[in-house]
Design goal:
By secondary structure, the chain is α/β, with parallel strands linked by helices. It has two domains: about 200 residues, no CATH class; about 180 residues, Transcription Regulator spoIIAA (2-Layer Sandwich). The chain is built from 19 helices and 16 strands. A six-stranded parallel sheet has the order 3-1-4-5-6-7. Strands 9-12-13 form a three-stranded parallel sheet, covered by helices on one side. The chain has a three-stranded parallel sheet with strand order 14-15-16, sandwiched between helices. About 45% of the residues are buried. Bound molecules: iron/sulfur cluster (SF4). The site of iron/sulfur cluster has 11 residues, from loops. Iron/sulfur cluster binds next to loops.
Length: about 500
């Protein structure tokens, strides 16, 4: 038996990542950098599925589309969220639509592009998407193929690649209103339908709660961001907060699916129920408190936070750390993703002054330093990015970033340097990307400073973060850290010096 509508993703998104959501980012490493056996056993083991191929824990975006379809009258017997490796169980001649969620269908997202530039190879997500589209069940039954998700814009701006892949329709943006309408039209044969569809904005009351478990217990708490950075495509330019009772209901669904932890997802968790970018201390604390105290929840963390929000409301950081019992043997630390992007007030002012609000651009290095210290003292690890090669960058800007990175050394954190990659549909879409061949000695110095920072912190971070992992993962990563840290450091230094960087 098959399903009329099959929702799926490429294989890199069909994993629980051993419960470590940060392992999920290893999908940005190009195919070939790590051997497949190593990548899929250590970082991305196959997610569990039932006899029909139904994923037990699925990508949150697919769960939202599933919920929207059911809310719009589709029957549970018509819709399945399927594991990509078990499509043969879900697809049959009854299947009319296969809808794929993808983060980076062409492997041209900023992180993947950086690693492809530096280390060669092809984006793993692009490779796995092609494999998915060539599965025998898809080839045999020829369902209509729809692609959505955060990377859908790539197939909008590269129609020739969309055609070559065999994707019939692309939905860019929110899918909860658009997908049910589109699916219905396809099922009813109401053609022609445009090949690229901009997703309608969903009214708050129309956002349906997920009905199955999500990967690592992710639950959306806010949608959108109003900080308006020139290089970014947030889902919306305005922050919307989900009502607390819906968040709690989704956490409950996750607990029933076997998840024990919760990741509160949004572009900045401190903006939950905020007004004009001012942190709503009471609402944020209540959110963490209520979620953490649901029966069955063992831990809670957040996906993203803004350094400016944290700095503008230190009491909120302190309070949530206390609520979550961080710094105790139970929960030594949790990690949030944060954006530094640059240490240059000039570049911040030029491209992302909203990121600094309520502070001033010239205060940015102090905001970053202060927030890192605050988060560190409250047992929150900052997993951050910087962007090299932003338009208008000069040697002085890079030096300011190097200087800032060096002052972050005492604070538990990871700093990932990325090469600027303009994304279509952003304000910088026509700007020049930074290519590997154009990296200056100062860029190499900055990369080296970041890697020194990371390699210094990895063992201590893993001691906390990895302690609940299986013996296999603990042993492999432990060995890697023990044997690989110093050789990697030397390699990074050698490479930087080869390119004229001043390494001390
Ligand atoms: S603060 Fe983050 S999510 Fe918001 S626009 Fe800037 S980069 Fe995007």
């Amino acid at each position: 038996m098959g399903y009329k509508i099959v929702l799926t993703s490429d294989r890199t998104m069909a994993s629980d990542y051993h419960g470590n959501m940060f392992f999920g980012f290893s999908a940005c490493l190009p195919q070939g950098v790590l051997p497949d056996w190593f990548y899929y056993s250590v970082f991305c083991p196959s997610g569990s599925a039932d006899r029909e191929g139904r994923l037990i824990h699925a990508n949150y975006g697919m769960r939202k589309i599933e919920a929207a379809l059911l809310a719009k009258g589709f029957n549970r017997s018509e819709v399945i969220v399927a594991h990509p490796d078990h499509l043969n169980r879900a697809i049959s001649d009854e299947t009319k639509i296969v809808s794929i969620s993808s983060n980076d269908p062409l492997g041209i997202g900023p992180a993947t592009s950086t690693f492809v530039q530096l280390w060669g190879g092809e984006g793993r997500m692009a490779v796995k998407l092609r494999e998915l589209l060539n599965k025998p069940s898809i080839k045999k039954f020829k369902p209509t193929i729809i692609l959505g998700g955060p990377g859908a814009w790539q197939l909008k701006v590269h129609p020739e690649k969309r055609k070559k892949l065999g994707v019939d329709f692309v939905v860019v943006g929110e899918g909860e209103v658009t997908a049910p309408k589109l699916f219905k039209k396809i099922l009813d044969g109401q053609f022609p339908i445009p090949e690229v569809i901009e997703g309608e904005i969903v009214r708050d009351k129309d956002i349906a709660d997920i009905v199955g478990g999500s990967i690592c217990g992710i639950v959306e708490v806010t949608r959108g961001c109003s900080r308006n950075c020139a290089f970014c495509i947030p889902s919306l330019k305005k922050v919307r907060s989900r009502p607390l009772n819906h968040i709690l209901a989704e956490v409950q669904t996750n607990i029933e699916s076997g998840n024990r932890g919760v990741i509160l997802h949004g572009e900045d968790v401190f903006q939950y129920k905020s007004k004009n970018l001012r942190v709503n201390h009471k609402a944020v604390v209540e959110l963490f408190n209520r979620v953490y105290h649901i029966s069955g929840v063992k831990w809670v963390t957040a996906s993203h936070a803004s350094l400016s929000s944290a700095m503008s409301s230190p009491e909120t950081v302190k309070k949530i750390s206390k609520v979550l019992e961080l710094g105790t043997d139970k929960h030594p630390t949790k990690a949030f993703q944060v954006g530094i992007e640059t240490g240059s007030p000039k570049l911040i002012h030029k491209h992302m002054r909203g990121k600094v609000y309520p502070f001033k651009s010239k205060e940015w290095p102090d905001v970053v330093r202060g927030a890192f210290k605050l988060l560190h003292e409250n047992h929150i690890v900052s997993c951050s990015t910087i962007i090299m090669g932003l338009p208008g960058e000069d040697q002085h800007d890079i030096q300011q970033t190097i200087d800032l990175m060096k002052t972050l050394k005492p604070y538990q954190s990871i700093i990932v340097p990325l090469l600027f990659t303009p994304m279509e549909t952003t304000r910088l879409e026509y700007a020049k990307p930074l290519l590997k061949k154009d990296l200056s000695p100062k860029h190499h110095e900055l990369i080296s400073v970041c890697w020194d920072h990371n390699l210094d912190w990895f063992p201590a971070l893993w001691a906390n973060y990895g302690r609940d992992n299986s013996l296999f993962v603990k042993t492999v990563i432990g060995l890697l850290l023990k044997l690989g840290t110093e050789p990697l450091r030397k390699k990074v230094h050698r490479n930087a010096m080869k390119h004229g960087a001043n390494i001390r």
